[in-house]
Structures are given as structure tokens and as C-alpha cells.
Amino acid sequence: MGALFLFMSLTNQPQWVAAYTSPRAEKMVTDRIAADLHLETYLPLHRVLRKWSDRMKSVEVPLIPSYTFIKMCERDIWRVRDVKGICGFVSFPSTGIAIIRQSEIDSLRRLADSMESVYVHNTDQLHKGTPVQIIAGYLKGMKGTIVKDCKDGNFSIDIRKLNISLVVSVEQDVLQAISPEQLDE
Asked: What's the pTM?
């Protein structure tokens, strides 16, 4: 009974959901779902430098460990749950499986594809907690919240359904204050 309750928010139209995976199984799970189930998937990756005993190597690792994103319908739930490495879906008791907006997936794609770092020069209006939008550059249109006073140049992009924030820094004066209501648009 509880399992059925968790899935009530999905419909017959494909929607993005976040799935928990076993540790370090994100790539394998994502590839399996795309290849075997023919569902659209997205695993945001970024490059990091890893040190082995004899060398340094640049490798791609998940931007959000133990998560992968799947565009699926209600009828796909059990097929996806049967994939080895899937632990479950991000869900809430009152609303069921969390639906991730396309705009949030698009923001993750731009962030993962971007090599920009962030630093803000104009700090007059931008203080901790201020909702902002990037108005220029590769990340134009992304919305987030200032994490600390802008002297440090950090702001976060919130993915509210996952209850996580990704923190980036901006190199130029590209943030504009927005109203809190505009964060959800």
C-alpha cells in the first residue's frame, strides 16, 4: 500500500525524476536504463583531477553523487526499480515521487557543461540570502541564492525537489537581484 502511494504524482506523460543509486553506480545505472529500457536519462558529470600512486589523471565524476535523472511515466516505475543499482526514487510522503522541472534539468546541464567559475564584483545589493539570476555568459538565465556575502563570490543554484544546492562562483558582474517569487518560475 505504501509503495503505491509514493507513485501517485507521476502521470502517463514522461516527467523527470531523480533516482537514488548505489554508491559509485551512477554511470552504470544511467547507461543500463538508457540502453535496456530506452528511457531518456541524464547524469550530470564534471571533471576532477585524481591522483594515483604513479600519475595524475582527469576523470569525470557525478556532480551529485548517488543520483541519476530519468524521464519516465508511471508505467515505467517497476521496470526502473528492477534495474540493478537503483535504490529508490526521491519522494515525499505527502506528494509521492518528486517531479523535477525541465528548467532544473536544463540548469544542471548548463552548469555541468560550463567551465566558468564565478566571482561577483558589485556587492552593494547582493547579500547572503538574496535571490539572483545570471544575466550574461554561458550560464545566463540560471537562478539561485547568494550563499555568503558576495565578497566571496559564491551563490547557490537550488534544486528544491532534491533539497540540495550546487555552489558556483562567478568571474564577472553578471548577477542581478530578483524577487523570491521569480526563483520558482
From this structure: 0.68
What's at 35, amino acid-wise? A
Q: Has residue 14 got a pLDDT over 70?
A: yes
Give tens-digit pLDDT for 19-39: 999 999 999 999 999 999 999
In terms of Cβ atoms closer than 10 Å to its own Cβ (0-12, 13-18, 19+), residue 181 is exposed
CA distance 81 to 97: 13
For the record, the C-alpha cell of 132 comes out as: 539572483
Please give the grid coordinates belonging to residue 122.
558589485
Please state, in angstroms and rounded to a whole number, the distance separating the CA atoms of residues 166 and 155. Answer: 8
Phi first, then psi: give them for residue 150, nearest 5 degrees.
-65, -5
With CA atoms as reference, report the closest residue to 89 among 107, 66, 109. Answer: 66
CA-based torsion, 118, 129, 89, 66: positive or negative? positive
Cβ pair 179, 168 in contact under 8 A? no
